[in-house]
Amino acid sequence: MSAVDTASDLAIAIERAGAAKSSFYAAMKLLPEERRNAMFAIYAFCRDVDDIADEPAPEGTKPIELALWRSEIEAVYAGLVPGKPLARALMAPVKHFGLLKQDFLAVIDGMAMDAERDIRAPSLAELDLYCARVASAVGRLSVRVFGTWEPPADEVADHLGRALQLTNILRDLDEDAERGRLYLPRETLDKHGIAGDDPALVLADPALAAVCAEIAALARQHYQAAERAMARCRRAAMRPAMMMGGVYHALLLRLERRGWAAPRPEVKVPKLLKIWIALRRGYL
Hints:
The chain has two domains: 1-101, Farnesyl Diphosphate Synthase (Orthogonal Bundle); 118-284, Farnesyl Diphosphate Synthase. With 284 residues, the chain is an all-alpha fold. It has 15 helices and no strands. It has helices at residues 3-19, 23-29, 33-54, 61-77, 85-88, 91-97, 101-116, 124-146, 151-171, 173-178, 186-191, 199-204, 208-230, 235-258, 271-280.
């Protein structure tokens, strides 16, 4: 592959990552160039498979598109040139940072859970598996790009990934309901007397606040476990993870202050607070 082709593939990945306007984008921009580009490539991959799972499509096409991505990942690890520009953009990061194929495939498996059916009131075990695939697997790819292969780094990925995904679930209650999805776990709903799984009815139930409070508490447990694992890693390599954890933990606190009763206005972390978190984490 020529340098021009590689640059073009990377440019497509950077554009795809930037278009998502995620809180992750700010943290990625603070990395050194090679690591930053690797994270853009990983994030663009994640956005692409996520869109396959989320966007409307003719019946039967989503499994085909996800299977194509599996083939593209297999090609990367077989030393072949994939057909997708976003897959080609992963070739250099895989080689330079020792990224594991199983983590990319786990992300695809997580998106397949969304693509196969609308998830509604999963068991706690199914919810944990979903978070492990769509978030913690991304975390394991990320910590290697950040520059650490220490065993505690995988603990950071496992816990922080789950914490971030649970925070996303609480943030996106209404957006997910519009898609017919409900990620609040069956056991927690039953505990608080919510028997059904219709998203609209569950979100209108007076017991919703108690359910969300339990999920928020679970997310905090994962944030705390991630912090403990970070303390056993090299601080420089953990700074991006620390910043993402700080921003999302701030988001969780703001969601709790807003409350869970309808209407639920959108909650964001202000830019000035993100800058303060970056300063606190030793970035700026």
